[in-house]
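Hi team,

As requested, here is the filled-out complex form for the BIS(adenosine)-5'-pentaphosphate run. I kept the field names the same as last time so the parser does not choke. Let me know if anything looks off before we queue the next batch.

— J.
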Amino acid sequence: MNLVLFGPPGSGKGTQAERLRDRFRLRHISTGDLLRDAVARETELGKQVQSVLAAGRLVSDDIVLALMRDAIAGVASEPALRGWLLDGFPRTVGQAGGLDRLLEELHQRIDAIFVLDVGREVLIERLSGRRTCTQCKTVYHVTANPPAVEGRCDKCGGTLVQREDDRPETIERRLGVYAAQTQPILAYYRGRVTIHELDGEMPVDEVTRTIERVLG
Ligand code: AP5
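And here is what came back:
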C-alpha cells in the first residue's frame, strides 16, 4: 500500500501520517522531517539547506529526489512494512516526474493520493499555534491539541518548540510557494492515480476515520 498525503502547509499531513503509519504498517516518509533532521545534525546537506528551509522556499528537486530514492527503495527490504506514506513530497511537477521514473524502476506505484483541503485562515491559525517536540517530533497545537503540561511532550517529556518557518512572514511565503509550485501537481496526477479529496478542517479523529474508511 503506497500512499501520498497532499495538502498545503498546516493541513495536517504530519498529524495524519503519524496515526496511519502504525495502523497500516507503513513507513512514514516526510521530506520536511528528513531535511530538518539533516539541519539539526549539521551534516553537509543540512548546512546546504538550512537557509532555504528557514526562508520557506523549496529545496532543489535534485537534492530531494536523491533523498527520496534511498528512503523509498529501503522500504522493500523491511518485511514488517506494507508500503510507504509520503508527506510533503512530491512538491513540484519536476519531483512528480522524478518519482514516476523511480517507481517504474522499482516496479512500484502510488495506490492513492489523499488531499487535505483547508482554508487559508485556518492554515495560518494552525501553523502559528503549532509546537513540535524536539526529541520525538510529536506535533501539538497550543489550543486545538495542547500537551497536558505546557511546553512538555506527553509522549517523551521532551521540550516543545515553534518551528523556525512557522513565523508569520515565512508562513505567507510557504502558502504562496504551495499555490504556485505544488498545487499544479494535482492536475499532473488526475486521471492517472486515484485522488481522494477530504475536508481537512474536520477534527483530527474524523479526518483519520475518513481515510481509514477509504482504505478499508
Ligand atoms: P514540511 O515539513 O513538509 O512542511 P509543510 O508541507 O509546510 O507542512 P507542515 O509540516 O507545515 O504541515 P502539515 O500539513 O504536516 O500539518 P501538521 O500535521 O503539522 O516542509 C518544510 C520545509 O522543508 C519546506 O518549506 C521546504 O523548505 C522543505 N521541503 C520539504 N519537502 C520538500 C520538497 N519535497 N521539496 C523541496 N523542499 C521541501 O499540522 C499543523 C498544525 O495543525 C499542528 O499544530 C496540528 O496539531 C494542527 N492540526 C492538524 N490537523 C488538525 C485538525 N484536523 N484540526 C485541528 N488542528 C489540526
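Two things worth flagging: The first strand starts at residue 3 and ends at 6. The radius of gyration is 17 Å.

Thanks,
J.
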